[in-house]
Amino acid sequence: MIKYIDNVDNISSDKLKGFFVGWPNPPSEEKHLELLKKSAYIWVAIDDETDMVIGFINAISDGVISAYIPLLEVVPEYQKRGIGRKLTEKMVKTLEVFYMVDLLCDENMNDYYKKFDFFSANAMIMRNYDRQNGESS
Asked: What is the per-residue pLDDT across 52-66, written as a single tens digit (0 to 9) for each?
């Protein structure tokens, strides 16, 4: 059974394994926990049998009119089971009070997010891959 919670108060970094697959410089489990703790809003999916976090979504916000969803991830072994959909639904519901909720995604994910009433827009981005872990290499 999968449970969904909106905090990481009782989660340690050793429960955050298997995320950021394919990233050129993925954050450590400790940095992953830190980013969840410092997010304005989070939802995590936990496998009750293993007590491991198997998915998460986070949002950062000004707390007034806008929020941004930077990450939605489900551990590969748990993908295609509706966990990402459930996490997204919970976050969209959480953020419904805001005037604007933005996210960036790869183009192949556009159809997925359209199901949640997101629409395409232009964006500019910068990536400092050498600083993904919060420190220079």
From this structure: 999 999 999 999 999
